[in-house]
């Protein structure tokens, strides 16, 4: 008995070893490129023997049969039969992976898909799909649409369940381009689009849209639903790749990268390719603004929408919904007698009634994203003209109450532009809508399209009453392209903004969208228009009284408040009326001081406004506000301005400068430019030197500032847009910015306006290379005033 047991144990061990040997040989062949690279290369009897014991579910045998039945001129019906068998073995694993929301593919939870890939299934299916295009023979059997769909579905299931499959497919440029040709077939479009979307998400290099065969005619052949789905793919091709870790986002790294990539990037070239397709932007505008028919009560639909949002984050379910919508449209248009087929579909019984609405919302999210990216590109003015012509803004205004902001959604986490978002479709839709408004209004004369005719008249009346000329952009606005109805889009946005819950991160995006309307050359009429709608009081309530703790939301309100109050004496008067106690004022200062990176734009506004008001001593109203306003009185004290200046310089260095904190450098420059204008620059530089010595780190602050100004020259003197923005926002000519920086960087030790004069020889370190590590900020730099 013992001997028999030992023989049985050795036999089982040998079998397991032989099974492992097969897998090892395949893996080794795939790595080295020699020997066995596919399971189909092994003898049939060996595969049969090992199949049951290894629990391969017959997959290697099926692949062997498929390989033998899928040659040129073979019977494709037999090929399709085997494909169906394989598909049934893999589809359940894919659906299980999706519904259980697994983040990382694992062999243990997807054994069938893993086996399929290991035995060469993925490569075989790619060959089958592409064989008609690779054959030099004239008469190749035509693959049926159903066979193509099943092959694509199997490949997509493998991408979901097996790590590395998507990347290996993405590395095959020939296959990627081939997939785009399949999109011209309406019956295979969905499966193709879903697979392409997955592949595009992992490619290291953005594809060239111009390389897609007949791109223009392909896009023009899409119906509206297909075009919306295609936008999911386009969003990857027209966006600049995320630079990754934080140090790659520094301005130093970005400038170095721009030198390497001097020519237009692929993303920029792809944007141009899209804009050259006739009717493309017009169709996107129609998609973004088309209305949705609601079949049942709003509250019930919205509740269902929230319940189902986790499913809708997955492309499989969304594509299934899309297919159902297409079939439903086809049935209603043809009035087919075969009405039982759709009603008997499991989807019809599984999906709630609100899916059509969610489906439309998902379309609009993708479309708005594409439009937003195009608005931020080099062809911005061309895109603006098209969006105005095709009445995008009036169309969105008509959807605002019924679809975009029909209720206050549940709370959610704030996501920045490049962060992945797991929000529900409704939340994603709102965020993308607000991003679009921000991009549309920012520094562009078309911002007045956000108003209706009556509101434009109100702006004209404000200018007339103040005895100031109307803004040229307002005069030039085509009133046939502005919003319809009783309220324009900007006014509607302010209304919902004031009703937003205290802890809602929508406040961030709303404030950004409204701020963009004010950015650029300061317009008194625009400010008064918003002041009359109680915006300043609402912002102050949020900063002082609401208990808001979110730094992102507070930053957006500081920036908005700065634009709203800049150079506007009425705004400062309103501020003083609201902040009418020392307790409130100290709370306001505490919020500013808690993060100067977030609040420095407001500090800049106060400094600039104070300087202008002090030059208007003949205006009784200005003199009165200057004497009464706590905020202006506080900033008029030189020790307070110096305290801000010291901290602004000390919280940044060249290595840590980003698009987020470079404003601190520019705000410190504004303080010194105004000091220079009034002949007080030597006093300020001397005070900075005294501060260094009192803090017992002489030379650290001024050396750091010298490095920052050298970088400023390097960065801004080659950037037309940034320099224009600086000039418009400060009302200080850019030539004066450049002159001041040049004076500060002078090497003339006899100049009282040169930084070098105030650094003792022993501590001077002015010629350090930008790429060298700067000294860290002093630990006391972030302290209060």
Automatic annotation (TrEMBL):
Pfam family, one: DUF3689
Positions of region (Disordered): 328-347
Gene Ontology biological process terms in this record: ubiquitin-dependent protein catabolic process
Sample GO molecular function, one term: phosphatase binding
InterPro entries according to UniProt: TRPC4AP
Positions with biased composition (Low complexity): 331-345
Superkingdom of this protein's organism: Eukaryota
GO-annotated cellular components: Cul4A-RING E3 ubiquitin ligase complex
Annotated protein name in UniProt: Transient receptor potential cation channel, subfamily C, member 4 associated protein a
Species in which this protein is naturally found: Astyanax mexicanus (Blind cave fish)
Organismal lineage: Eukaryota, Metazoa, Chordata, Craniata, Vertebrata
């Amino acid at each position: 008995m013992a001997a028999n047991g030992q023989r049985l144990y050795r036999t089982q061990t040998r079998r397991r070893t032989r099974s492992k040997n097969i897998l090892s040989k395949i893996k080794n062949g795939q790595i080295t490129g020699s020997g066995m690279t596919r399971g189909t290369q092994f003898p049939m009897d060996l595969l049969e023997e090992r199949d049951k014991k290894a629990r391969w579910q017959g997959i290697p045998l099926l692949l062997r049969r498929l390989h033998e039945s899928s040659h040129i001129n073979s019977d494709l019906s037999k090929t399709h039969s085997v494909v169906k068998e394989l598909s049934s073995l893999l589809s359940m694993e894919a659906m299980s992976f999706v519904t259980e929301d697994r983040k990382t593919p694992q062999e243990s939870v997807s054994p069938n898909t893993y086996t399929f890939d290991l035995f060469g299934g993925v490569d075989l299916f790619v060959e089958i799909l592409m064989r008609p295009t690779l054959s030099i023979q004239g008469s190749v059997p035509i693959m049926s649409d159903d066979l193509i769909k099943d092959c694509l579905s199997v490949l997509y299931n493998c991408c979901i369940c097996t790590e590395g499959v998507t990347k290996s497919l993405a590395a095959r440029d020939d296959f990627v381009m081939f997939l785009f040709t399949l999109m011209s077939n309406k019956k295979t479009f969905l499966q193709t689009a879903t697979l392409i979307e997955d592949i595009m998400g992992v490619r290291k290099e953005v594809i060239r849209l111009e390389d897609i065969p007949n791109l223009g005619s392909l896009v023009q052949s899409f119906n509206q639903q297909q075009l919306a789905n295609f936008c999911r793919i386009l969003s990857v091709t027209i966006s600049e790749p995320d630079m990754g870790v934080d140090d790659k986002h520094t301005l130093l790294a970005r400038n170095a990268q721009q030198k390497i990539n001097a020519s237009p990037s692929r993303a920029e070239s792809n944007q141009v390719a899209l804009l050259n397709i006739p009717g493309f932007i017009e169709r996107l505008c129609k998609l973004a603004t088309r209305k949705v028919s609601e079949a049942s009560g709003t509250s019930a639909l919205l509740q269902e929408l929230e319940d189902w949002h986790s499913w809708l984050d997955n492309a499989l379910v969304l594509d299934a919904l899309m297919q159902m919508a297409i079939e439903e449209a086809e049935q209603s248009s043809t009035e087919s007698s075969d009405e039982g087929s759709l009603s008997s579909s499991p989807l019809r019984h599984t999906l709630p009634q609100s899916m059509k609405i969610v489906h439309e919302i998902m379309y609009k999210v993708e479309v708005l994203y594409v439009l937003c990216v195009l608005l931020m590109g080099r062809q911005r003015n061309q895109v603006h003209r098209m969006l105005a012509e095709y009445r995008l803004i009036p169309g969105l205004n008509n959807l605002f109450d019924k679809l975009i902001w029909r209720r206050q959604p549940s709370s959610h986490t704030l996501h920045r532009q490049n962060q992945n978002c797991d929000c529900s479709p409704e939340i994603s839709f709102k965020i993308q809508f607000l991003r679009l408004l921000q991009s549309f209004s920012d520094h562009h004369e078309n911002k007045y399209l956000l108003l209706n005719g009556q509101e434009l008249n109100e702006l004209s009346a404000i200018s007339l009453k103040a005895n100031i000329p109307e803004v040229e952009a307002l005069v030039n606005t085509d009133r046939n392209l502005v919003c319809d109805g009783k309220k324009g889009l900007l006014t509607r946005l302010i209304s919902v903004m004031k009703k937003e819950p205290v802890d809602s991160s929508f406040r961030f995006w709303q404030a950004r969208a409204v701020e963009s309307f004010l950015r650029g050359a300061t317009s008194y009429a625009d400010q008064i228009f918003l002041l009359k709608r109680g915006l300043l009081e609402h912002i102050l309530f949020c900063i002082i009284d609401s208990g808001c703790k979110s730094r992102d939301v507070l930053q957006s309100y500081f920036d908005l408040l700065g634009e709203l109050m800049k150079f506007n004496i009425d705004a400062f008067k309103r501020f003083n009326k609201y902040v009418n106690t020392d307790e409130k004022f100290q709370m306001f200062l505490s919020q500013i001081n808690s993060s100067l990176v977030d609040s420095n734009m407001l500090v800049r506004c106060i400094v600039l406004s104070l300087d202008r008001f002090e030059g208007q001593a003949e205006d009784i109203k200005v003199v009165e506000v200057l004497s009464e306003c706590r905020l202006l009185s506080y900033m008029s004290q030189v020790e307070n301005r110096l305290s801000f200046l010291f901290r602004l310089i000390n919280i940044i260095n060249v290595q840590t400068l980003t698009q987020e904190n470079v404003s601190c450098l520019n705000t410190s420059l504004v303080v010194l430019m105004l000091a220079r204008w009034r002949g007080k620059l030597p006093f300020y530089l001397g005070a900075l030197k005294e501060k260094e010595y009192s803090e017992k780190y002489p030379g650290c602050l001024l050396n750091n500032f010298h490095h920052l100004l050298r970088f400023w020259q390097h960065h801004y003197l080659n950037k037309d847009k940034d320099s224009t923005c600086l000039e418009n926002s400060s009302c200080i000519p850019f030539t004066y910015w450049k002159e001041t920086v040049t004076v500060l960087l002078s090497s003339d030790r006899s100049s009282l306006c040169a930084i070098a004069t105030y650094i003792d020889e022993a501590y001077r370190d002015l010629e350090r290379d930008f790429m060298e590590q700067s000294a860290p900020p002093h630990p006391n730099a972030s302290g209060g005033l």
